[in-house]
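Entry for the shared binder. Reason: the reviewer on the internal report wants the predicted structure included alongside the sequence.
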Amino acid sequence: MKTFYKNLKIISIGILIGSASIINASPSFNDIKAHIIKYEGWSDKVYICPTGHKTVGGGTNLESKGLQDKYKVGQNIDNCLLNKWLKEDVKIAEQIANKQFKSFNSQPENVQIILISLAYNLGPNRIKKFKDFTAAIEKKDYINAAAELKDSLWYKQTGIRGKKYVEILKNI
């Protein structure tokens, strides 16, 4: 029972589709937010995600915030609070991406968005398991990075997002 924003302008699409990239330009929060909403959806009601956790907004796990007992499934949550949580989660994802990928700041903006999205989706422990992908990103070997993503369980579970990331990496 998710509510999705249907008329949201996705700013990051233009960034992600083109093969031309701006080096050393950090994506804005709005670009990352639009990207996350495109792939995660948006719900102002608490729901149970496929992994069994109470979730809301653009994929905010209430258990990770210690709030699983405060909110009930189906309960509406104010969009200001959802945006606050998303901003916190994106900041954490950026920190994870920066730690995992030493070359993060020198990557093209579209790659930075992919890395932040992966960190947001996987978290710090699961992204560490992408060792060959990380090595390829560090070498800016985007063809092998794409192959490593495609060879992961994550790719099989994410559908169009995984396919889009592989396509983007292959075309850089």
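Summary line for the report: The first strand starts at residue 43 and ends at 48.
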